[in-house]
Amino acid sequence: MQNSFLTRRTVIKAGGAAGLTAILAAAGAGSASAFSPLGSSPAEGEIGVFDLGPAVVQFSLMSAQLVGDTLFIGSRNVEPVRIVALDMPSGRVVGQTELTTGHTIQTMAVNASGTQLYAGVLQKSTGPQANLFRWDLGDLGTPAVAIGTMGDRDVRDMSVAPDGHVFAVGGGSDTPPALWEYDPAAGTVVSRGIPEPGATLARAVAATDTTVFFGAGSTLAGGGNAAGACLYAYDRATGEHTLVTPQEMTADPSIRDLAIFGNQLIIGTAEPSGSSKIAAMDVDNPGSYQVFTAGGVTVKTFARIGEAVYYSSDAGVNRYDLATNQTSPVDSDGPELGEIWGIDALNGKVLVTSGFGFVAEIDPATGRCVFTDLVEAGTEASAQTTMGMAAGGGYIYVGGNGAIARHSMDGEPTTYLRAPGEAKDAIMLGSALYTGQYSSQGIWKYDPQDGQPIRQIASYPKEQNRPLNVSWDESNGLILVAAQSDTAGGGSLWTYDPASGAANHFINPLDDTQLLRAVVAQDGVAYVGGGGPATDDGGTIAAMNPVTGAVLWSLPPADSGVSALAIHGNNLYSLSRRGTITVIDVGTRTVVHQSSIRELSYGFGAMVTNQGVVYGASKTNVFRFDPVTFAVETVLADTAGGWYSGSHLTQDEAGNMYTLQGRNLVRIEVPSLPKVSVEVSARTVGRNTMFQVRAVNSEAVPVDVALTTAYGDKRFNNVQAGKNAFHSFTVRSASLPAGVLTVQSRAVMDGESVTSTKTVRYSAFH
User: What are 558-614's pLDDT values in tens digits?
Assistant: First the structure.
């Protein structure tokens, strides 16, 4: 992400670091004793790394299963991975168990007697570690135990047949998803075959003693020859798979969820354009069914009360009337539900497990809602893996699941903004935060100065669901977003004009298969980098007109998909997923440098231009490139960043950079050039206050200095080496509030014009 306030130009390699935020300091040389020091910023120093604590702290969740009066909830992206037991009558957490592998629990299922709870995990790598677990509900103090490993990396759904056999589906491996069976008597996990070789992910399974229904499609890595929605019936006696997809659902990308109530199989699809379906099928006669176009991008999580099935969509909770084959929304007087990961029925009420970290109990007849916050109920909040990041306006924002943490630069308590889905990337424009919101949520805005809550300000085609990189085009005044389509393949460039509110998009500007993973702009041209689901896919780099969408020129892939882009002067830096850095002169469209930095970066990364130097971040390192030789240098090693969907690196107005070390937010302070130190002090003179600013040139060449304060501006030209620029502003008040001043320095160094801007925070004066 490239923020609006970062348009500085330099070709000098940054040396050690300086604290660019204000610190209390002794008065500088020559300050009168009557002056009180308020703040300072040194000219140079070593790189500083400051631990700001956990980036996002909450109890994030992704699944729920009701057993009797107890709701079991599976965690998401927090450590340890755990299941909590919420007693609904008391509203208190009465049990918890931790799982030994994985990072998220997306599915749980219970046996017919309600004594055994099964869970499957999502994980970063395939076995041999277990991904299937069982918890004995007879004693909640007994920990869950691993029961085996299904061959697909991720477990997306589970179902327990009446005879106790467990069936699971998922994906994430190099092979198409299979149907897996766990035999509790034998203790074995075996594959029951791959029903659909063209499927990329299976997210639904429902089992009886005779038949297992397998639902799949092209949820991730779609497009090309990937299969659409497919529903198979597996005959447990013969081992045969029979395609039974309702004809009306075959055009949708995937089967999203399945549930069996009596002799009816309820089927939901995902359709990113907003025409998802719901169907009721006879379990014993799949050719007998009814289908209704429910709308929305997904239909999932089913519960039945009487002749109605309640389900969730991106619009909230809905009711499907089995008799009339119609749907209707379920309104309530409760809070916004956000992303829903559980729908259950208890005593005629609908239980909704929200990704916002609470359980809502809704009376469908009256709409009355009672909700239970899980942390207040006794669930422990903990640091989770994070998404996008942006800094400016006095705050650092970090995206999590269903929440964005707002860290104050002034030490105020961290607060949280609720937003559905995930802020995959973000930028700051002044005091305003703009996020690219997954999934299919477009662009959201939050500005603490306008008094409004965080809200969606622009939407885009729903199938372009995954924003990956957000950048600012200063020349055209446009927010640019590089995006991916999970289901259809390919990607798009989104644009948004904050001044007019106009939004536009350009689908598949590179080709029909490459997503857009990175975008950066300069002089009215947007440079985009392509890629694909696999590391080696794509890699085209193109220059686009972001107003018309025209591709001005393009270069073929270097070695793999693009991970990140940054630009400085005429040099466009492209970092590939295989760790190759390529530098392109955009004037001549030629490659001027290429080398491997695989030991520092492999996979997803990020880059920013900070004071004329390009910095990068990977999961393991923060590094920078010499702007002349392009040699790479490590800035911060062994970061082990707790990222969920790729590394991020951002910066504030002062040039401080922010990233993760583990799951903690860290600030990296780097020096600015030319090297100019600043001292701020004040004293009372009668009824007035003299606000004094002194800037000292620590370079060996003359420097031009411009001061911008709340009490006036002052410019000094040709401040000689070792000399200082001093000005005293008269303020008609006996006291001053805390504030910020801006110092811009310019010098000619090694024949190049070098400019830097930094802010200095100072304390109040009384």
Answer: 789 999 999 999 999 999 999 999 999 999 999 999 999 999 999 999 999 998 899
Cβ atoms of 167 and 156 within 8 Å: the answer is no
C-alpha to C-alpha distance for 427 and 651, rounded to whole angstroms: 10
Question: In which domain, by residue range, is 656 found?
Answer: 50-55+384-669
Whether residue 490 lies inside any domain: the answer is yes
- In single-letter form, the type of residue at position 278 comes to I
Q: Give 1-26 pLDDT, tens digit per residue.
A: 655 443 322 222 223 333 323 322 32
Count of structural domains, the chain: 3
CATH of the domain at 578: 2.130.10.10
Closest C-alpha to 427, from 385, 388, 484: 388
Statement to judge: residues 549 and 521 lie in one domain: yes
**Rounded (10°) CA dihedral 264, 269, 275, 278:** 10
Instruction: Find how far residue 448's CA is from the centre of its chain.
Output: 21
Q: Is residue 90 part of a domain?
A: yes
Compute φ and ψ for 248, nearest 5 degrees: -70, -15
Each as own residue / partner, the long-range contacts of residues 303-308 (CB below 8 Å, 24 or more positions apart, any chain) are 303/343, 303/344, 303/345, 303/350, 303/351, 304/261, 304/266, 304/345, 305/345, 305/348, 305/350, 305/364, 308/364
Same-domain status, 130 and 252: yes
Domain of 66, CATH number, reads 2.120.10.80
Using one digit for the tens of pLDDT, what is the confidence trace for 414-454? 999 999 999 999 999 999 999 999 999 999 999 999 999 99
The reply to whether 199 falls in a domain is yes
Of 629, 651, 669, the position where a domain reaches its end is 669
Q: Say whether pLDDT at 763 is over 60.
A: yes
State how far the Cα of 555 lies from the Cα of 567, in Å rounded to an integer: 16
- Considering only CA atoms, which of 179, 59, 172 is closest in space to residue 124? 172
pLDDT at position 651, please? 97
Number of H helices, E strands in the chain: 0, 65
Residues 665 and 745 in one domain: no
The reply to whether 312 falls in a domain is no
Q: How far is it, in rounded angstroms, from Cα 291 to Cα 251? A: 13
Q: Domain holding 686: CATH number?
A: 2.60.40.1230
Residue 470 has pLDDT above 60, yes or no: yes
Residues 583 and 598: their CA atoms lie apart, in Å, by 16
d(CA 740, CA 654): 11
Partners of 705 in beta bridges: 716, 745
- pTM, rounded to two decimals: 0.86
Count Cβ atoms below 10 Å from residue 512 Cβ, excluding itself: 11
**pLDDT digits 0-9 by tens, 251-291:** 999 999 999 999 999 999 999 888 999 999 999 999 999 99
